[in-house]
Design brief:
EC number: 2.7.13.3
Membrane topology: Multi-pass membrane protein
Mean pLDDT: 84
Strand order of the largest sheet: 1-2-4-3
Number of helices: 2
Catalytic activity: ATP + protein L-histidine = ADP + protein N-phospho-L-histidine
CATH topology: Heat Shock Protein 90
Keywords: ATP-binding, Kinase, Nucleotide-binding, Phosphoprotein, Transferase, Two-component regulatory system
InterPro entries: BphY/WalK/GraS-like, HATPase_C_sf, HATPase_dom, His_kinase_dom, Sig_transdc_His_kin-like_C
Helix content: 10-25%
Low-confidence stretches: none
Structural class: alpha+beta
Largest sheet: 4 strands, antiparallel
Number of domains: 1
Length: 100
């Protein structure tokens, strides 16, 4: 929400894909530059330093998200284009429910 204008759009979708559960979040916000994409999951990484200071944050959100997803045996992928938006997809393995 921080990087999507008030007139923008954020979509959240989820479902099953094979033996995985997926969650996808897509926006049409400011996007992430190609040079920043390889670093977005690094702790404390901030792409646009000037914008980051004005809007707060520590650069930990995506690194924490990646850690949580991987601790649950999943994966996280991010695709983005400046001025067109970002798509984040998380996959978690499906597991059988424990019998009561």
């Amino acid at each position: 929400m921080k990087y999507t204008p008030s007139s923008g759009k954020i979509e959240v979708a989820g479902g099953y894909r094979g033996h995985s559960v997926y969650i996808r979040v897509t926006d049409n916000g400011s996007g992430i530059s190609e040079e920043d994409l390889p670093h977005v999951f690094e702790r404390f990484y901030r792409g646009d330093k000037a914008r980051s200071r004005a809007e707060g944050g520590t650069g930990l959100g995506l690194s924490i998200a990646k850690w949580i997803v991987e601790e649950h045996g999943g994966s996280i992928q991010l695709d983005s284009q400046p001025d067109h938006g970002t798509r984040v997809e998380v996959l978690f393995p499906r597991s059988k429910r424990a019998e009561p």
